[in-house]
């Protein structure tokens, strides 16, 4: 019997604080202090989940989130109201056949507030193929591509990796061969958007590499 699971939740909250953050921008940069002022933070969030089967070979899982928050802040001695919006959509679809699994994982993330003309967002998709070759071996390959846009910057990036696992049952040993970063990316990019700032983070990556691991189980 095939069943579909679904859920939806909504929550409202208000939190009171005895302090308020004060930020000042000048030629030397940013300075922040806490001021003894009553402050209330309001938020609204909604979460959804849907999972089930399509036929006998395909299963899917979808999760969504929307969060809105409103808070006060003092910027350059002026009290302002900051309204943040955060949206995510995560999807996974698996197709199972013989000894194999083929998975597709598209995702979306968006962050915005009333201080920015355009929101920051990221779209990514991962494709994974796994096959059990026999009782002692398996092969897995994954391709991951994502697009990030924040402010005036927009960047595409992609990753491709391969893994082979072989088990020596008599010795209770796993031999794993990984070939990483076949697309030879030199960096990984992540973004953040806070109340009144945007930033890109660049993480230096190693070039294409081959890793051979021996794992002994006791």
Question: In words, what does this structure look like?
Answer:
Helix content is 0%, strand content 77%. It is mainly β and 218 residues long. Strand 10 and strand 11 form a beta hairpin. The model has no long low-confidence stretch (mean pLDDT 87). Strands 1, 2, 3, 4, 5, 6, 7, 8, 9, 10, 11 and 14 form a twelve-stranded mixed beta sheet that branches. A two-stranded antiparallel sheet has the order 12-13. The protein is built from no helices and 14 strands.
Helix and strand pattern: EEEEEEEEEEEEEE
What count of helical segments does DSSP give? 0
pLDDT averaged over residues: 87
Care to count the β-strands?
A: 14
Instruction: State Rg.
Output: 23 Å
Task: Note poorly predicted spans.
Answer: none
State which percent range the strand residues make up: over 45%
Main sheet overview = 12 strands, mixed
Which percent bin holds the helix content?
Answer: under 10%
> How many angstroms does the end-to-end distance come to?
40 Å
Shape: extended
Content-based structural category: mainly beta
What's a concise summary of this model?
Helix content is about 0%, strand content about 75%. It has about 220 residues and is mainly beta.
Blueprint (SSEs and pairs):
Elements: E1 5-17, E2 20-26, E3 29-35, E4 39-54, E5 58-75, E6 78-97, E7 100-113, E8 120-132, E9 137-150, E10 153-168, E11 173-180, E12 187-193, E13 198-204, E14 209-216
Parallel strand pairs: 2-5
Antiparallel strand pairs: 1-4, 2-3, 4-5, 5-6, 6-7, 7-8, 8-9, 9-10, 10-11, 11-14, 12-13
